[in-house]
ABC transporter ATP-binding protein
Amino acid sequence: MAAGGVAMLLVAASTSLTAWLMKPAVDDVLAAGDTTMMWVVGLGLPGAFALKGISNYMQRASMLYAGLGMVATARARLFRHLMALDLAFFQRHPTGDLTSRLIIDLDTLRSTITSTGIALGRDVATLVSLITTLLVMDWRLSLVGLMIFPVLVLPVAALGRRARRRATDLQETLGHYDALLHQAFEGVRVVKIFGTPERERTRLHGVVLRLFGAMVQVERIKILSAFLIELASGIAVALVVLYGGHRVIDGTTTAGTFFAFITALILAYRPIKKLGHMSAVLQEGVAVLDRLFAILDTRPELREAPDARPLAVSDGAIRLEDVRVSHAETTRSALDGITLDIPAGQTVALVGPSGAGKTTVLNLVARLRDPSAGRVCIDGQDIRGATLESLWRHVALVTQDVTLFEGTVLENILFGAPDAVDPRAPSAEERARAETAARNADAHAFIAALPEGYDTQIGESGLRLSGGQRQRIAIARAMVKDAPILLLDEATAALDRETERRVQTALERLGRGRTTLVVAHRLATVRHADRICVLEAGRIVEEGDHDSLLARGGLYARLWAGQGGA
């Protein structure tokens, strides 16, 4: 940055030197025929331009490095902050919009930092230097030439405020555009099967038109700002020519001074124009910062207590005490006074109609959300008093919608290993550990048959694998984690019967010796659970094992019958 500051001053000095050299070029060389001064001017002009070029390069490189560094820091901080936010935030914000803020908004910010940094540094210094030169040459002529520019302050400032509003609209429309693209690509199979590509094209075309309109508005403001500065510059030069020419004619100033003055004034035009254009660019940057700070100012609803301590898990017993969960947007309760004990090492299943609150219970145990009332304890410790990292270290999760990451099969399995140094370069011991987990998850056979075995790239979200294969990799990942508490959320709901049977066997193997909480739609998959809790409208309405619940003839029996005796 220090080098950039020195370069900025050298640019300003070399630009003013160019204007100063015009006076002896006219008065001493052309008028008086001074050959010595001819060599001074002849060598001085290319020297001034060379100094300006080198200094320009130094300053631009310095600002580019600073801008890239600032944006890299901002990108890392924003991602870290996003990862600290809770699920409710991500449910409110489309993935495409968040991606847009991390990529497009930050790239716009980088452009703003580098371009305005150069303008504020080099152009302000150059303008100050040139105005000083003008005043020293002829202060009366300077007042005539510069008096038009203060008039521009109000309209340029008004255009800047307008640019900020339009830039905000532009960034929000870009976020919506990204969200639609993400949705269309992710759901391309549904779009094709349901024959709605034309509908998606129409919807996207509407957003593209809005995007076009927003871009036109922003660029129109920049063009109008540039036009005002061009007009003012033309008027300024005309006034100087009229007044300065009159003074040359009546002999109160020399032709050399007049030409040097005109040169300095013309050289001042470029920084004035850039500074005027910078107003709109700055407002674009401010609009981006508004969007970024809207995220950074968001505080997670789930926070660690100031005196939070690591969770000490010995057995993994879970207890929910009079737990209530209310939705902020509705008056309906997701859970209404549930008390549930899950002894260490037992498997408890949660069943019931959709919307009964089953998944909410899992989210509470994992502390992906907090109850409105009551408390959740593990081994007698309220989990709100534990550090989140220590809680999540003791919990493994397998869901219906399996999340796999772009990379190899091995990397995805070792994703569950808390002590893995680098899943991309696993040790022989880690590879053996992953293979053992895959065998226990009934995944080794199909993995070995892949083109590169465990080192096969599975593509984004594991799209090159079948649903059952993805599910078994997720189970292997949970096995590698070896957590004492296991949460299963509809883990076999989307599978065919044969695949379900194989996955169910792997899940039972995974659950051995662990406290397991299962959310299930297919009742046959939980008939051997130690206890089954039937939820309805946020309450536990029945509880017992499979046979006793069937004998009772209540909601569980009706659900069982509705599935054809499962």
About this structure: Residues 197-249 form the longest helix (53 residues). The mean pLDDT is 78. Residues 402-482 form a domain with the Rossmann fold fold (CATH 3.40.50.300).
